[in-house]
User: Fold these one by one.
Assistant:
Number 1:
Amino acid sequence: MACWRWTETERIIRKALTEEKRVSTKTSAADLVTETDHLVEDLIISELRERFPSHRFIAEEAAASGAKCVLTHSPTWIIDPIDGTCNFVHRFPTVAVSIGFAVRQELEFGVIYHCTEERLYTGRRGRGAFCNGQRLRVSGETEMESHHLAQAGLELMASDLSKALVLTEIGPKRDPATLKLFLSNMERLLHAKAHGVRVIGSSTLALCHLASGAADAYYQFGLHCWDLAAATVIIREAGGIVIDTSGGPLDLMACRVVAASTREMAMLIAQALQTINYGRDDEK
């Protein structure tokens, strides 16, 4: 994938960033889509289908149009044509293209391209994670010992998250009950004396910052399999951990995640969070 036609994708997105856009909404007024999302998705699928005609595809805009998100044992490409569409609409340059690949329901590799900064993040199972050829490593930030896990709570978190920069995204639901839970979760981490909580508007690039060691943890309710597939491989290959918000193994279709530089930190954050229910990708 490193030699794939990123130049054409980059040209389309860079050009569209400077132009007026026709913007539509999907599940809410904050869940946006543009004609460029569709154009880039069609370009990616067309190119891959020409090379791999027997492979399956899960893609964001196709799913929004009613295509089923079912991950089978067949080789499957999982595509987000423009992650950070709200940023894109407002000409805020934190946008990326994300392509993951799974075989027998196991994530094998992923690529994420930050178009405006020409950063190509790649990860392949068992072969490491890289950004423009430079190896990625998570920060490994933690101060805890294993026996602390049995006592995990907000007081303990204060000592273990006191040097952590945590990333998250708001999610498309903006009803009062959902916003209350979202702000409560952020408040819990701030009470735990985390250095900071950041929202950058692109879940895939936030996860790449974690993989590169620029942040220590990430959590979100409401993201989708196309947000997670490529980034999960990159984080794992950079030495990080990606789990469900319940503390169990990652469920790619569950629309929720905690990722961190260490398992201990991931578990602490998972235990602090209140669940926001977004359903499942494979049930929509």
Number 2:
Amino acid sequence: MYGENWDGMFVSIDGPSGVGKTTTCKGLVARLREAGEWVHATCEPTATPLGEFVRAHADTYHGMALACMVAGDRHHHVTTDILPAVRSGALVVTDRYLPSSLVLQVRDGVPVELVWQINHGIPLPDLAVILIGDAGVVSRRLARRVERDRFEAAHDTGEVQRFAEVAEELGAAGWPVYLLDCGELSPDEVVAELVARIAEVDPRRGGSARGT
């Protein structure tokens, strides 16, 4: 599925918990729909039974066991949701994709080579956004959360750095990566930056005449 041609566009957004990723995804989807884009919003773990199980049991399963479930959820996500939508012409925005596994599963003890192997065959996004920010700000945001999984509870400054490293590694591997430091930007400014980047990648996007 690598390099597949399709009518739509596929955008993934990753970054450390607390960086504002989910807020950014929601704002981007809203802005694109206001501009007339046909947007399909999705996320990982997914809302499927497997994805919900992964989300609910991330504290129970560790290492390779969790990595395989995450990868299985992703493969199912690709074949049943992402590819059908993007082939039909939608602009697909997913909150988390492979970059998150290259950070979280690796920090959970899985060799990076194995993360790549169990995710073999997934399609490259047309734009792989990786958000980073001030590690101290991210940590303080996570500390205020009432409910945190073990990854969020164990967050340290190294996670932000690892996402930056993954951006470089993916770029070297041919991924269309856009690393955005949103530490000094407001949520609206982050969204505006991404809308502009999407239009650069595909000039048809960001203000088409199609309905929502």
Number 3:
Amino acid sequence: MSNTITKTNFSFPNQKSVYHGKVREVYTINNDLLVMIATDRLSAFDVIMPKGIPYKGQILNQIATKFMEMTADIVPNWLVATPDPNVAVGLVCEPFKVEMVIRGYLAGHAAREYNAGKRILCGVTLPEGLKENDQLPQPIITPSTKEELGLHDEDISREEIISKGIVSEEDYLVLEQYTRTLYKKGSEIAAERGLILVDTKYEFGKTKEGKIVLIDEIHTPDSSRYFYADGYEERQEKGEAQKQLSKEFVRQWLIGQGFQGKEGQSVPEMSDEYINSVTERYIELYEKIIGEPFVKADVSNINERIESNVLAYLAKNN
């Protein structure tokens, strides 16, 4: 669709490198700053869908920005500025090669593993008798490896992370503490908005000074799963699907079309009508979790807008 941004190819002053991730494109400036552009690409089962989702990048970037601002007093983060609706500028960090996934409920990947008979997930033992979407006795951390583009992230235990030297024990304890702190705060904010923060993931990095900070995104529909609190218990008792705001509805649609990112499977065609419905779900989540109307940015020429805003910021601050 014409009003989406799915790829960038900028050349900013003092640009040292560019990294194209699943959804975000990261430009390194002077080896000090990162210019992170949230595209409209949609990734599911570690596969990038052929078409972009209008306004998705803006929604992700603005949710992440607002949550970083709301949690900066409890967990330090990389964010410096947001010169454009799709852009975050932050400190250069060395990312930890793990994603810190925390789950308060048995949903998504954890539910699929549990229903397949597994009772130990990332070294954490789960009790018998749970139903899909049940609240867990307490939130559990189930890390995954952070793989390169095109490779599947893999579940990994705390013990493996430390024994393999992926993260030192000292640093990992900080990652765990920050993960639990952010999830608690995110859950409180969600509850105020009539939502349940079911599960989420965080990524962390180290600044040049050796400080551990939150990087990338936080509490967005790409990294988190939300249920509506109203009617949650009633739906559980009846064995009904939960009303949710997350990317899971895309995954379920893909599964229904016979696609789970496995070898030999083809990505199903997404109609313009379906793509627009995905945009509406993302906007719904933004407005529900942030608590204010979503204002669509000018998308008549997104690339030109982003380039102009980033250049103006760098000229003024670099």
